[in-house]
Input
Amino acid sequence: MVDRFRAITYVLKQEGAGSLGSAGRKLRTAVDMLHRFDQSGGERHSARRSELLVNAAYLLSAYVIQREAIGLRNHKDLTAEFDLTAEIWNRVGAVR
Output
């Protein structure tokens, strides 16, 4: 019985790590797209930029939820790790 529990725990941890990695890659891509848009001189109040910002904030919230699900509750390092702006953090949880 103990061996089955360990095996299940191992698989669950593997799945959690995989999900976190996937969420992190999606977040990185979304933040990079927003930064590239800003650097290209795109209109600050355009619909496209708003869409990129909403997507980045949504994926940030998904990433934070994934981290919390596996027990990582300190999110202070995320800003530097993903080059997050206050604007992205402020949009987390905002609903249109």
User: Anything to note?
Assistant: The chain has one domain: 2-91. Residues 29 and 60 are 11 Å apart (CA to CA). The mean pLDDT is 91.
